[in-house]
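Sequence only, no structure available. Ideas?
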Amino acid sequence: MKFQSAKEVFDKMSEFFDSEAAAGAKVIYQFHITDADPADYTVAIENGALEVSEGIHENPTLTLSMLEENWLKLVEGKLNPAMAFMSGKIKAKGDLFIAQKFGTYFKLS
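Reply:
I predicted one. Tokens follow.
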């Protein structure tokens, strides 16, 4: 799937959410897209329910920061998450195990 902007990805995230895969999960992802406006999005998952909103959460489980280009490549499957972390294209603060789980909650292909 091809996206035009970070905002489009977050706006359509519920269409790709796998509530069964997220059953029992309780996590808050904070995304900071460093060169986009708006730049901050919160993705909250709790017991198979999804809530996506613009803005900054006061206590996220994990914060991920990256350029919009890298976010789009990541969700389109054109950027390897592990390589992106190691090369500094994605910066993370918080529980990195939770970062690995993110892809299991969404079916983008």
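The helical segments are 6-12, 68-75, 81-87, 96-101.
Hope that gets you unstuck.
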